[in-house]
Amino acid sequence: MEVSIEPSWKTHLTHEFEQPYFEQLTQFVKQEYRQYTCYPKGKDIFSAFDHCPFQEVKVVIIGQDPYHGPNQANGLCFSVKDGIPHPPSLVNIFKEIKVDVEKPYPKSGNLERWAEQGVLLLNATLTVRAHQAGSHQNKGWEQFTDAVIKTISSQLEGVVFLLWGGFAKKKSSLIDKSKHHILTSGHPSPLSANRGLWFGNQHFSKANDLLAKMGKPGIDW
């Protein structure tokens, strides 16, 4: 079936788009978007891929679900559109960056600037019904995004995976640890961060150190 996604990803994921589960997933998503308000906008569903071509991937950050409030989700995990107040997890991400790499807290929570440097901001589920967290889970998205992680693992080398929280850590089983780097910590959500499981993980400087050792430019977080 025809999926509108950045060409290099299309090349690597055509096999998935042709699977029966993906056809069923597409029908489900189309029906949901017809019947309900869903996020992100249809054109932004594959935005994480569109801003970060396959061969450019240097870092992968895995989220769970898109934001389900109005005008928040823009297709990249943890990211919000320009001018939108920063959700609590994003606030804690920016606080850690401020301490870790001494960058000032940014005005915009739009992380497209990371994606364009090679950070794939991948939610495990790419769509959600408004105000209903997890409403599009277990419909096929996870099978698709697991295939994305496996494809990155098998086809690329030296990618740094940042796995935050229990859900993301489970994805480590899909990654070839002999070729890639995995950094894990608690989730940046207040629940986890306030228990001391997030702040001080230094993932942003550590990721750049790993990239530097491989001769790759670091990320301007």
TrEMBL record:
The gene is ung. GO terms for cellular component: cytoplasm. SMART domains: UDG, UreE_C. It is found in: Cytoplasm. Residues 50-211 form the Uracil-DNA glycosylase-like domain. It comes from Flagellimonas nanhaiensis. The keyword Hydrolase applies. PANTHER family: URACIL-DNA GLYCOSYLASE (PTHR11264:SF0). Its main location: cytoplasm. Keywords: Cytoplasm, DNA damage, DNA repair, Glycosidase, Hydrolase. One of its GO terms (biological process) is base-excision repair, AP site formation via deaminated base removal. PROSITE patterns: U_DNA_GLYCOSYLASE. SUPFAM superfamilies: Uracil-DNA glycosylase-like. HAMAP family: UDG. Its EC number is 3.2.2.27. Transmembrane segments: none annotated. Signal peptide: none annotated. Excises uracil residues from the DNA which can arise as a result of misincorporation of dUMP residues by DNA polymerase or due to deamination of cytosine. The keyword Transmembrane does not apply. This is Uracil-DNA glycosylase. The lineage of its organism: Bacteria, Pseudomonadati, Bacteroidota, Flavobacteriia, Flavobacteriales. The active site is at residue 65. InterPro entries: UDG_fam1 (IPR002043), Ura-DNA_Glyclase_AS (IPR018085), Uracil-DNA_glycosylase-like (IPR005122), Uracil-DNA_glycosylase-like_sf (IPR036895). One of its GO terms (molecular function) is uracil DNA N-glycosylase activity. It catalyses: Hydrolyzes single-stranded DNA or mismatched double-stranded DNA and polynucleotides, releasing free uracil.
